[in-house]
Amino acid sequence: MNQRVLHHDAASANDATQAHAPSGGTVRLTTAQALVRYLAAQRVTTEDGSGTEPLFGGVFAIFGHGNVAGIGEALYQHREALPTLRAHNEQAMAHSAIAYAKAHFRRRMMAVTTSIGPGATNLITAAALAHVNRLPVLLLPGDVFVSRAPDPVLQQVEDFHDGGVSANDAFKPVSRYFDRIVHPAQLLNALPRALRVLTDAALCGPVTLALPQDVQAQAWDFPADFFTPRVITFHSPAPRAEDIDAAVAHLRRARRPLIVAGGGVLYGHATDALHRFAAAHGIPVAETQAGKGSLAWNDPLNAGALGVTGSPAANALAHDADCVLAIGTRLQDFTTGSNTLFTQADVIGINANPFDGLKHRALVVEADARLALDALAESLQGWHADRTWTARAHKLSASWRDTVSTLTHAPQRDTVLPYEGDVIGAVQRSSARSATDDIVVCAAGTLPAELHKLWRASKPGAYHVEYGYSCMGYEIAGGLGVKLARPAREVIVMLGDGSYLMMNSEIATSVMIGAKLIVVVLDNRGYGCINRLQQACGGAPFNNLLDDCMQGPLGAPKIDFAAHARALGAEAEHVANIAELEDALQRARAADRTYVISIDTDPARTTNDGGWWWEVAVPEVSARDTVRAARSQYDAQLAARAAPADPSDRPGHIDNE
């Protein structure tokens, strides 16, 4: 890997930032120069606490007429302190930047700059992804001229009713903080505000600073001390004593508590605290997609994945729990089974963001996960969940681990196509160290469900699946960002043929910058996941698998993914079965560049174990019997959810009065 570009020395970056900053007074810079210098000056304590390193790992850039002259020149001047990485697609490079921050548990991040017009609007999907997943990324799209003298410029979007609107206003609903810099002096307020949002556990998400191209080039006398290197303090709230007391009272009344571990456990560096807390009080733990890896897969109290893509162990415990401690989770519908999975349990929401904490009518503890767990542990000394409940959790969890082993080691038949579980097993068997060192990256389709159930994550960060936005196309670009963040670890991107075709250009970027990935493409000839959902809702197979799509006289093409990947500079091969896949994975691990392996898989077969109801609206009126039957089942589920929960029906209910 290109060490100079990707892993610039912290000390040299610091020196480069200070070299041009006078000790006092002012320094005359353009807006773009001041912006870049400020970003380069921000530091963060290293993970081992031995020193500092840059907060921003670099800037992804695709230049155009809206940013090449301003930001482009500024980035060139500071390319040693703040590396610039070129990508091939604006949405993809933002995905890479977001994945970089997620892999660093939100303690380091990247910026992204584009031109105006399509370059900017290509970032909108990535901004929404970061917003949904509560992940930091700094978006720096170019904008039209503030002077309006040359309006309309190339690529300018004109609003017929508001002359102040540009394409960048589309970022407002998907940004945690948005600002349009119309004068250089505004950076003095906008940049500290942006940094606070990016580094605050409650506010965290995408920040957009729209940069009109004439203002980028405008000069101003900035205070020199504005660019003094500073070490960032990450902001996380401590719990209030009264909130802890209320949560303790709920837990002490509970006999069958369950912990739901979300992404906030990882971002709050609370995994050790979670392990201690669960073990001390005998509480089983179920993991969301974002929280998977909070406990080691073989921890006796780890019941596995929860919800629609959940394990039978976790879902059984959630269904019977009388108290759910939801830590750092958004409680989205896949976690709660569309609000049907633990409706009769008291919910305690521990979250730095009260908007997320109060979901499911929870008692809110607005706090950092680690601080809250430590406070609860201190107040709950001597308390333990019902011993039979803990024993049941141990038994269910152990049984599920055995099932996972069976599913991922199933004997293969040449006459039957493998499915995702077979491929996951092969990947995990391909290295004796894979259980601890590999990082799997995925985002959409069937694979997130199978990985959530079957991937064995031994430590935090081993599981990197974007499922808040479930964005097809994130996978390869996200894998690149993970590799930039964790260059010493093997990053294995697993994705379907649909996602590969949607966005694959960053294979070329990974080769160019020496960020090696292993990419496993599961080719089921279409959108297999949605095809199954379509039929589950009574629909006919239509427009999902290639065979069911409108076709011309030549029919649907047989796509050679290996040949395509080789054309992008990667090494690649297609394999016929799981045995060949295992051999290919060894070659991939030994390779010096990104290695792509494709394998044909079954679009219909999935893991039957586990799962829960997920609400997908079925048409009330249809000429098809299958749709009417599906609607009848849907109505029954709606009626069951709407039935008022009677706390006295809860197994082993203890009257709170």
UniProtKB/TrEMBL annotation:
Keywords: Hydrolase, Thiamine pyrophosphate
Thiamine pyrophosphate enzyme central domain residues: 244-376
GO molecular function, one term: flavin adenine dinucleotide binding
The keyword DNA-binding is assigned to this record: no
EC number(s) on file: 3.7.1.22
Residue intervals of the Thiamine pyrophosphate enzyme TPP-binding domain: 444-598
Keyword Protease: no
Region of interest: Disordered: 1-24
Superkingdom assignment: Bacteria
Similarity comment: Belongs to the TPP enzyme family.
Protein name: 3D-(3,5/4)-trihydroxycyclohexane-1,2-dione hydrolase
Native organism taxonomy: Bacteria, Pseudomonadati, Pseudomonadota, Betaproteobacteria, Burkholderiales
